[in-house]
Each structure stands twice: as C-alpha cells, then as structure tokens.
Amino acid sequence: MTIWVFYSKDIAINVYNKTQLSDTLRQKLISDGFQKIDLEISAADEGKAIDLLLENYRANTEALKEFGKDVTFSSLIFNLLRQGS
Fold it and tell me: Tens digits of per-residue pLDDT, 29-56?
C-alpha cells in the first residue's frame, strides 16, 4: 500500500504519494500557502486515500458534536444545581 499525505489551503486539498513528494515540491507548496495536514493514510490509490480522509473528518466532526452536547447538558445541570442551593 502507498502512504498518502495531504496539503490544504482554504478549501483546496492536494493529495501526494509520500515517497514521490520531493523537497522542492514540498517547499513550493509551503511558499504557496499550503499547510500539511497532520495525517498520513495508507491506501491502494489516491481515491481511496481521499475517501479515508473524508471518513476520518466525518468521525471527528461527529465526536465534536457529541462533546458539545455533553458539555451543554453538564452546564445545564450545574446551573440548575447552583440555582437550587
């Protein structure tokens, strides 16, 4: 399997085969304002790597939603208990 790396700028995401990404291209990406996403994915091809990146993004987004619900619920209970004392 190939290891894929990702660089993003605004809404653009570029995908590169890690072994074929030269230092020159890496420096050009950085100078063009791209930032490396701190995630490397092992996949058979570029399309599968993008699918796995999106799957990871969706899982993280869902976890953040659940965290927000937990914090909101906990804050509500805390405030109700505080008002009752």
Answer: 999 999 999 999 999 999 999 999 999 8
> Are 4 and 18 spatial neighbours (Cβ–Cβ below 8 Å)?
yes
pTM: 0.70
* End-to-end CA separation in angstroms for the chain: 61
**3-state SS string for 3-66:** EEEEEEECCEEEEEEHHHCCHHHHHHHHHCCCEEEEEEEEECCHHHHHHHHHHHHHHHHHHHHH
Given this model, what pLDDT does residue 85 score?
A: 59
**What whole-number distance in Å separates Cα of residue 46 and Cα of residue 6?**
11
Please provide residue 33's backbone torsions phi and psi, each rounded to the nearest 5 degrees.
95, 5
Residue 67: is its pLDDT beyond 90? no
